[in-house]
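Question: Send over one sample?
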Amino acid sequence: MMKPAQIRELSMDEMQARISELEEERFRLRFRSATEALNDPLRLRVIRRDIARLKTVLKEQQTKAGTVRAGGR
């Protein structure tokens, strides 16, 4: 689990890369959970929450930098 303070130390590119890695891991775990029991089913929750934390801090930094486009995209 990543703490918000740890996340804020990352650059925007590093955060986006970490989000991509976690989304890929979440996809693989969800796919595997459909066919077999997972060793650590709580890992899905941890991944989901880490992605949310990363996206929240990324959005904060983008807002500070003024790089958020109109329309929220």
Summary: Residues 4-65 form a domain with the Helix Hairpins fold (CATH 1.10.287). The chain is about 75% helix and 0% strand.
